[in-house]
Design a protein that fits this description.
Blueprint: H1 7-10, H2 15-24, H3 26-46, H4 54-84
Amino acid sequence: MTEKHDLVHEFPEHRARIHALKTTDRHFARLFQEYHEVDHAVRRAEDLIDRLTDEQEQALKRRRLALKDALYDMLRAAEAVEAAA
């Protein structure tokens, strides 16, 4: 079994903010969905359910990291707005 990389597991301190942004920010919701799909594909490859080349698997992992970074930046921006309010 591979390690979990879902966003709530990665950023438990942002659980409520993740939920709020998924329901109020279309861009966040779209990136969140893509992250979930890419993470699922990576886990299937790591668990040898889907056979991918090393290059394909590495590309998926790079995309997952880029999405996670973008989503984290959005979470931090929302946190800053909330703190300023």
